[in-house]
Amino acid sequence: MIHGMNDDIPFDKNFTLKPDQVQEVAPGVRAMVADNPGPFTYKGTISYIVGSGSVAIIDPGPDDVGHINALLHAVRGETVSHIFVTHTHRDHSPAAAQIKAATGAKVYAQGPHRPARPLHTGEVRRLDASNDLDFRPDVALGDGETVTGSGWTLQAVATPGHTANHMAYAFKEADLLFAGDHVMAWSTTIVAPPDGAMSDYMASLQKLARRSEPLYLSGHGAPVRDAPRYVQHLIRHRQAREASILHRLAKGAADIPTIVRAVYIGLDPRLVGAAALSVLAHLEELVARGTVATEGPPSLAGIYRLA
């Protein structure tokens, strides 16, 4: 989630839900935000409760006792039949184990955490501190699979990019999409190799652009309205970011810190590292296409030039 050079996207930063309060945000959907605000989580991670009486929970959230207890309190007197996870970052999936232990519900997700590509020699997974490496779903879902509950049907929509195992869920009865961190109203999404891949992220955006759901409920921030049009804004933004990188390289070879300074104007200093990883994701894609060259595999330490 990176700010800077995003004036082309119609962000919505209105978000008034207070931590661990329950609010109906769409027919058959209640939302509860965890008290974990920050530069990458905005006002906090949102857990969703789908249905009534016999319900599903989407993204139970971080390993935070207060949030877990509030979520269980919100469904008191109801049966939790399913738990869905969009992806395995520590602000989304760790609470699944405790919610499962308290309710007996099965956990559904694309799969365990994994990098988007094999690690290069000497490379480490940079985001391990934010990855839930212990997560294992009870049921691994494939793209397009549907799961039905009491009055609801969720279709798994594979959306890799932010993570390799990112999964959105289409709520058929309400004509909306739980978009996780793939599409958010408040900011763009970080794509950080080797956990994420720009080629996957762009393909997933194109996939969503072909869908018709008008409303997305995201992992952070306000709902995304007029969603297909908003996705087109995200696609154009990434294409413009790529063009800006190529424009800088047309002036001569450069390393990633130089490109970040040229491309991200007015960047929050806390997000410089994330911006560098996002530029690396673009450069991996450009090197794979033969547009940009570097010595060896693309890396944060590499020098890049037009091919």
How far is it from the N-terminal to the C-terminal residue, by CA? 29 Å
Rg calculated over all Cα atoms? 19 Å
Structure annotation, total helices: 6
Biggest sheet descriptor: 7 strands, mixed
Number of strands: 16
Structural class label: alpha+beta
Low-confidence stretches: 1-6
Biggest sheet strand order reads 1-2-3-4-5-6-7
Beta content: 15-25%
Helix/strand order, N-terminal first: EEEEHEHEEEEEEHEEHEHHEE
On the 0-100 scale, what is the average pLDDT?
Answer: 94
Helix content: 25-40%
Can you give a write-up of this model?
With 307 residues, the protein is of the alpha+beta class. The chain contains 6 helices and 16 strands. The protein has helices spanning 65-74, 96-103, 198-209, 227-249, 256-263, 272-288, and strands at residues 23-26, 29-33, 46-50, 54-58, 79-84, 106-109, 139-140, 146-148, 153-158, 167-171, 176-180, 215-218, 224-225, 254-255, 292-293, 303-306. A 7-stranded mixed sheet has the order 1-2-3-4-5-6-7, covered by helices on one side. It starts with 22 loop residues before the first strand and ends with a strand. Residues 1-6 have low confidence and may be disordered.
Task: Please sum up the structure shown.
Helices cover 25% and strands 21% of the residues.
List keywords for this structure.
single chain, 307 residues, alpha+beta, 7-stranded mixed β-sheet, 6-stranded mixed β-sheet, 6 helices, 25% helix
Give the helix/strand layout.
Blueprint: E1 23-26, E2 29-33, E3 46-50, E4 54-58, H1 65-74, E5 79-84, H2 96-103, E6 106-109, E7 139-140, E8 146-148, E9 153-158, E10 167-171, E11 176-180, H3 198-209, E12 215-218, E13 224-225, H4 227-249, E14 254-255, H5 256-263, H6 272-288, E15 292-293, E16 303-306
